[in-house]
Design brief:
The protein is mainly α. Strands 1-3-2 form a three-stranded antiparallel sheet. β2 and β3 form a beta hairpin. α1 runs antiparallel to α5 and α2 packs across α3.
Length: 249
């Protein structure tokens, strides 16, 4: 079995498979990779219509550099006069309501609360001790939540060399990745529905129904990924023009 990371040749093979009209499952079997790995790779790099091996390889290198780059020195806590009229009660209420919405979207309770805390900071970053203090939970609970969020690439872990502490930082592209993760699931459903149509037979009622499902999800997914990529570029241009950086910039 190949290593965990996709190589440039793997990406070229993926692009060739897409151009040939192969399903994600067929491409994955050719690479001896899980179908989920191939699906995620395609969805996070332009989708089936926009996937390019060169661009995907460069994007992977950029993400690797961002993870290993030294984090900036965190800004000191703002004085009371610089809180922009916020109150502790209003911030607490917002975090709890935000966490509740994240929970309804499928994120476990503690993970939702940690992510809400990170978003409710101007720097977009907090240490474990700061999260413990804000949420009034044990360090073990924070550690478990951080591991969960990091695995799903919703946050990043960076070390502050001056203070010798790890800081947990909101990933600027977390929502983009969340949209693509949803698209990935839809793509897998489209694939299995297409397989079911072939097994049942396209001319049978069951086969026709599954073929409709596959086509619907495929077309909707294409639109979702295209729109996500478009607005991602638009937001990047706006931030660059306005000089507004992300949490780790």
């Amino acid at each position: 079995m190949p290593g965990d990371r996709l190589t440039y040749q793997d990406r070229r093979d993926i692009a060739a498979g897409l151009a040939a009209g192969f399903t994600y499952s067929v491409i994955a079997r050719g690479l001896q990779r899980p179908a989920s790995t191939v699906t995620r790779e395609i969805m996070r790099n332009g989708g089936p219509a926009g996937y390019r091996a060169d661009q995907a390889q460069q994007a992977t290198k950029r993400r690797a550099r961002r993870r290993t780059s030294a984090p900036p020195t965190p800004s000191p806590a703002p004085p009371a006069a610089a809180t922009h009229g916020r109150t502790a009660e209003a911030m607490h209420d917002f975090r709890e309501r935000f966490a509740a919405v994240l929970g309804r979207a499928g994120l476990p309770s503690m993970m939702s609360r940690v992510l809400a805390c990170l978003y409710a900071t101007d720097t977009g970053s907090l240490t474990s001790a700061e999260l413990v203090q804000q949420l009034r939970v044990s360090p073990a609970s924070i550690s478990k939540a951080i591991g969960y969020l990091e695995k799903r690439e919703l946050i990043q872990r960076e070390r502050d060399p001056q203070r010798g502490r790890e800081r947990y930082i909101v990933d600027d592209e977390a929502w983009y990745q969340a949209v693509l993760d949803s698209a990935r699931v839809n793509a897998e459903l489209a694939d299995i529905a297409e397989l079911g149509a072939k097994v049942l037979g396209d001319s049978t009622p069951g086969g026709a129904r599954l073929q409709d499902v596959s086509q619907f999800l495929g077309h909707v997914n294409h639109d979702i990924v295209h729109s996500a990529n478009h607005w991602r570029r638009q937001i990047h241009v706006r931030r660059t023009t306005d000089g507004v950086g992300g949490a780790s910039s």
